[in-house]
Amino acid sequence: MSADLRHPIARVRGLGSARQGTHHWIAQRLTAIGLVPLSLWFLWSVLTLVGAEYADARSFVAQPWNAALLAAFVLLLFYHAKLGIQVVIEDYVHSKPAEVTLLVSNLFICLFAALFAVFSIVRIALGA
After folding, report:
1. 0.85 cut: is pTM over it?
2. H or E stretch including 101?
């Protein structure tokens, strides 16, 4: 027999675990781990291009491996940012309408920024 330790009001209101916390926590950690080597690669790339001409930077991004790594970096970065901002909103915004508005805004801003960045990388890589 399992004892329910929640207050009766919490049971009536349906308060309790949304069963999403573990997935969210793991996703944050995995994106952070993935960003470590990608950030080092990005830092190395930027440092090697310091003082280079625009054409040199463009040809660097046009190389398939560099374009793929840059796209992966951007996608992981925005997903990790979305997860982190979501936690801050859920923890510190106590008005339900404001929380929902900010969560939806966070989702769309990160999504559109990531799509715009990847679209820009593809355009540079294809020479358009």
Report:
1. no
2. helix 96-125
